[in-house]
Amino acid sequence: MKKIALLGPGTFSEASTDHFLGRQWFEYVPYKLISDVFSSTSTGEADFGVIPIENTLEGSVSLHMDYLVHEVDLPIRAEWVYPIDMNLIGYLPEGGSGDAENPFAHIRKILSHHVVPAQCNKFMKQYLSGAEFELVSSTAEGIRLASVYKDPSIAAIGTAAAAMLYDIPILSKEIQDHKDNMTRFLLVGKGVPELQASLSTKTTILITLPEDYPGALHQVLSAFAWRKINLSKIESRPTKIKLGNYYFYIDIEGSLDSVLLSAAVQEIEAIGCQVRILGCYPSYSYEN
């Protein structure tokens, strides 16, 4: 049975992995820190790791992108998109909140992951503006701590599954700004997993431009454009070598095995660009 490292238990990472992979052929190894997920997968302690990489409301998780690029050498083996429903979780004071206008006025501290404020901004401004936000390693960890404190002034934001796991009430359901809030997760690892067939395939590459080649980025994009190859994402990130030097993280809809894509990569390398393949992998949507 293959081991999968992920944030957990009770996290969106775990829920999404359950949905797409299940537990029949995989054993989940939960960690509190994403750095431990990366390192355990890199050292072979776990066969694969699950990494949240992008969210509808927050955009790319830059810290995780940089870890994947600079800290480890773990090919991307699959991706999936999973809906994220945030819930306010905690305890009511004896006799209720006592505030008809704001039923959550008793909350003075919120424990959760750093991505939460961007995803629940409207709700937090309306009902939790007076509460301190305390950063913890995951949404599930915040819920676990709230269940330990059992203090009505301390609440958490996270999954309904974690609320059930730690036996703590849900005070308000689906508090995210938009109901179609989704997160994209990557499965990374040195091995090749046996996965169900997908409707689409993606390729992710890193491109570093030559310093002395004016118009290199235009030529890179042209190599894809005239071949009608669709880029689903292009993002620049610092190389961390020299100020002003960037690499381009590009997600491509298509397989590296296709003649057109392999020819585009060859054309880009011919103008002096460095190309690193991060993975060619199946892509799953929640409906699949």
Spans of at least 5 consecutive residues whose pLDDT stays below 50 are: none
State the end-to-end CA separation.
Answer: 24 Å
Give the class from helix and strand content and strand pairing.
Answer: alpha/beta
* Global morphology: elongated
From the alpha carbons, calculate the radius of gyration and give it in angstroms. Answer: 21 Å
User: What amount of the residues lies in strands?
Assistant: 25-35%
CATH superfamily of the largest domain: Periplasmic binding protein-like II
Sequence of secondary-structure elements: EHEHEEHEEEHHEHEHEEEHEEHE
Mean pLDDT: 92
Number of domains: 3
Q: Treating each run of at least 4 consecutive H or I residues as one helix, how many helices?
A: 9
CATH topology of the largest domain: D-Maltodextrin-Binding Protein, domain 2
Secondary structure tally: strands: 15
CATH class of the largest domain reads Alpha Beta
Helical percentage: 25-40%
CATH architecture of the largest domain: 3-Layer(aba) Sandwich
Biggest β-sheet strands, sense, barrel: 10 strands, mixed
Note down, in words, how this protein is organized.
- The chain has 288 residues and is α/β, with parallel strands linked by helices.
- The chain has 3 domains: 2-84 and 181-188, D-Maltodextrin-Binding Protein, domain 2, CATH 3.40.190.10; 87-172, D-Maltodextrin-Binding Protein, domain 2 (3-Layer(aba) Sandwich), CATH 3.40.190; 200-284, ACT domain (Alpha-Beta Plaits, 2-Layer Sandwich).
- The chain contains 9 helices and 15 strands.
- The strands form 2 sheets. Strands 1, 2, 3, 4, 5, 11, 12, 13, 14 and 15 form a 10-stranded mixed β-sheet that branches. It has a 5-stranded mixed β-sheet with strand order 8-7-9-6-10.
- Helix 1 (12-20) links the parallel strand 1 (2-7) and strand 2 (26-31).
- Helix 8 packs antiparallel against helix 9 (259-270).
- The mean pLDDT is 92.
